[in-house]
Write a structure and sequence with these properties.
about 350 residues; alpha+beta; Naphthalene 1,2-dioxygenase Alpha Subunit, Chain A, domain 1; Rieske Iron-sulfur Protein; 10 helices; globular; binds FE2/S2 (inorganic) cluster
């Protein structure tokens, strides 16, 4: 996508910033409390949303190297991501085909083979069963039928998206990200996530997943709840743009108003991609600036970290977990890593 769309969006936000306004809905829309507390509704959300639509599985940069893998769990489904020696990323149910043991403990690393901790069956990076301990005691086993169960997976703009439900139509790794992302990936590609480095990760426990997710859609709270970090003068207004169910919100604040003094051709990527980028149903991406000790002033954008928040429902409607991945456009020195972790 050309830079022109981002410029158009910035012009609109700048106009609101200059006028001190924000777009408003036609009327008040009330959301019933039961939408957040009803256990039957919560189960439907798991079954019809989290187990059907592509979900974020993590940043591509973590699995950039052939042979890298990551084991994780989403909505109760254990997942194993594996970047093969051929460079292709594959996703599997992280479960041994012998007696269903979890194959790899949650975490990431590099592996040529995945060996089950229960009876030591082993699988290669393509999920093929390649080793059976004391195989002669089993009689004939068709290993081609006992590989890991593939899951649909794909990558866009530096992010890995996958489905929790296996396909049975012969396209077992294929996922339709064009339909799911509605062109949004061509816009958030300008965040440059594909070229970044994973510099940190943390996990935050929270309430019902939609209560937690609402916090990423609501900029109204920023100068109040976050006054110690962003400051009390931070704008609480927002301009929204949507691509299908995905949306980006930007504050029409003094920084956007100041664009009027800069020729459009000089509006930076950082200015054009500011705001909070949410990806339905459970992702938020927001940038923030750190004080980089060895900052090169000729690269004004390189101190911005991206925080990718991956919101996951807990075991019931009352809880959630948010995994926050921190990406930087540079490989930090030990000193910079300490600043980031602070
Ligand atoms: S359950 Fe994995 S080898 Fe037996």
């Amino acid at each position: 996508m050309s830079r022109e769309l981002l410029v158009q969006l910035a012009r609109r936000t700048m106009a609101h910033a200059q006028a001190g306004t924000q777009p408003l809905a036609d009327g008040v829309r009330e959301v019933p409390v039961g939408n957040y507390t009803d256990p039957d509704r919560w189960q439907l959300e798991i079954d019809r949303i989290f187990k059907r639509v592509p979900l974020l599985l993590g940043p591509s940069c973590e699995l950039a190297e052939p042979g890298s893998y990551r084991a994780l769990e989403i909505a109760g489904v254990p997942i194993l991501l594996s970047r093969g020696a051929d460079g292709e990323l594959r996703s599997f149910v992280n479960m041994c085909s012998h007696r269903g043991a979890v194959l790899m403990e949650p975490g990431s690393g590099s592996a040529r083979r995945f060996t089950c901790p229960y009876h030591a069956w082993s699988y290669d990076q393509q999920g093929t069963l390649v080793g059976i301990l004391d195989r002669e005691d089993f009689g004939p086993v068709d290993t081609s039928c006992h590989g890991l169960t593939p899951l649909p997976v794909g990558e866009r703009a530096g992010l890995i998206f996958g489905s929790l439900t296996p396909r049975h139509d012969g396209q077992r790794h294929t996922i339709d990200l064009d339909a799911a992302l509605c062109g949004y990936d061509a816009v958030f590609e300008h965040l440059g996530l594909a070229d970044q480095h994973l510099v940190g990760r943390q996990q935050v426990d929270g309430p019902n997943w939609k209560v937690a997710y609402d916090g990423y859609l609501d900029l109204y709270h920023l100068p109040i709840l976050h006054k110690a970090t962003f400051g009390p003068d931070y704008s609480n207004k927002a301009v929204f743009d949507a691509w299908g169910p995905h949306q980006r919100s930007v504050q029409p604040d003094h920084r956007m108003a100041a664009l009027a003094d800069i020729p459009e051709a000089e509006w930076s990527q950082k200015q054009l991609t500011s705001g909070v980028w949410t990806i339905f149903p459970h992702v938020s991406i927001a940038g923030f600036v750190i004080d980089r000790p060895s900052h090169d002033s000729e690269q004004p954008g390189d101190t911005r970290l991206q925080m990718i928040s991956q919101l996951l429902p807990g075991p019931d409607q009352w809880s959630s977990v948010t995994v926050q991945h921190f990406l930087a456009p540079f490989e930090p020195t030990a000193e910079e890593q300490a600043v980031i972790e602070e």
